[in-house]
Design goal:
Helix 10 packs antiparallel against helix 13 (358-373). By secondary structure, the protein is α+β, with helices and mostly antiparallel strands. The chain is globular, with a radius of gyration of 21 Å. Helix content is 39%, strand content 14%. The strands form three sheets. Strands 1-2-3-4-6-5 form a six-stranded antiparallel beta sheet, covered by helices on one side. Strands 7-9-10 form a three-stranded antiparallel beta sheet.
Length: 374
């Protein structure tokens, strides 16, 4: 269903494009009767939607329809056009938090205000059993009135909904993933709070708490490394705020804030002085897993933009072989590499780079022949 500026889709005229991602496109539209400007979201034209992508899109529509909060982008309606689902949403005129970070234009006090609004929206969603699973600066819109709007609920799911996630399914943006998300484990609301902590850390210090040269290094940092205290990087941070950020980044969910409301209460209780007006240090360039998307996240969180010839049994076999050398993180490394590899040889070449020891790398590569003969 190709859509161009000037086309009419139902009762909406397409007046612009807002962006696209791995599986969807977002348009700026105007209702032909009310003249209200809105955002229209749909699957990418000309690309066959898998059952999983179609179900994820339908799930996002139904979840958003159940939410009504000033810090969550509102769904106005949804319908089918030429047999394909279309979502009509609130149009947000402003910037993503990612864009503000890149411009180094966020005062410390304003950063904390944004995070309080994020936590308010999450507290509302979590109370209704909905986990976002992809909290990051590019999914946090800031409108012209400085109001936060959480967007891109394409990975969200009901907390008790085992039918929409499965063990080993790793979705999200690696720099902002909780340790349990990195491991592909069942998630609860405390995973979102970890992602908020990563975002707040970045806002306050100008750097990510966990980083590395490759995906394996980043994933390992989430699982094993301890982030430097924010106040040791930016001494203008109030001590209580530094402590709250550190608590949100605890490896075990039991040691974090247990609810978004708890996190929000802790941040609101912090006393501010003149430091609240200071600009934070210059922000580092974003990592490879934090792309600047178009408005509303562009449905890009986990869409696979490259067709792969690999089947799931091959991916699982490679994961098992790699796990002998780098441990359980192998599942994450292989799943992500499989989105780029066109065949088994390419997959082996990509993931072998994560093995530091040459002899171990050779032993792993030798297992390629075993898979061919099986």
């Amino acid at each position: 269903m190709p859509i161009n500026v000037g086309d009419q889709v139902g009762d909406h005229e397409v007046i612009g494009t807002l962006g696209s991602g791995g599986m969807g496109h977002v348009y700026k539209v105007r209702h032909t009767i009310s003249h209200r400007v809105e955002a229209m979201k749909g699957l990418l034209p000309g690309r066959p939607a898998t059952e999983e992508i179609a179900q994820r899109f339908l799930r996002e529509i139904r979840l958003l329809a159940s939410l009504d909060h000033p810090n969550i982008a509102a769904l106005h309606t949804a319908h089918r056009h030429e047999g394909e689902l279309i979502m009509i949403m609130e149009f947000i005129e402003g910037q993503t938090l990612r864009e503000k970070l890149d411009a180094n234009s966020v005062m410390m006090g304003k950063s904390v205000d944004y995070i309080q609004q994020v936590l308010s929206g999450l507290a509302y969603a979590h109370a209704r059993g909905i986990i976002h699973r992809d909290i990051k600066p590019s999914n946090i819109m800031i409108n012209r009135e400085d109001r936060v709007k959480l967007v891109d609920f394409g990975l969200a799911f009901p907390a008790l909904g085992s039918d929409v996630t499965r063990p080993g399914a790793i979705l999200g943006s690696l720099h902002y993933m909780s340790p349990e998300q990195v491991m592909g484990e069942q998630l609860d609301a405390r995973s979102d709070l970890y992602s908020v902590g990563v975002t707040l850390y970045q806002l306050l210090t100008g750097r990510l708490p966990f980083d590395g040269a490759g995906e394996y290094a980043i994933a390992s940092s989430h699982l094993r490394a301890m982030a430097a205290d924010p106040i040791s990087i930016n001494p203008n941070i109030p001590p209580q705020l530094s402590e709250a950020v550190t608590k949100s980044l605890a490896k075990s969910p039991e040691n974090r804030f247990q609810t978004a409301a708890d996190f929000l209460e802790a941040v609101r209780a912090i006393r501010w002085d003149e430091a609240s007006t200071l600009l934070i240090p210059a922000h580092r360039a974003r990592g490879p897993n934090e792309h600047t998307p178009a408005v509303y996240g562009g449905l890009s969180a986990s869409g696979n933009s490259k067709k792969t010839a690999l089947d799931q049994s091959e991916i699982e076999s490679v994961s098992r072989e790699l796990a002998f050398h780098i441990g359980p993180i192998a599942r994450l490394v292989v799943n992500r590499a499989a989105k780029q590899a066109m065949n088994l040889d390419e997959l082996y070449a990509l993931v072998a780079k994560e093995i530091d020891a040459e002899e171990s790398r050779k032993r792993f590569l030798a297992t390629r022949r075993k898979l061919s003969s099986s």
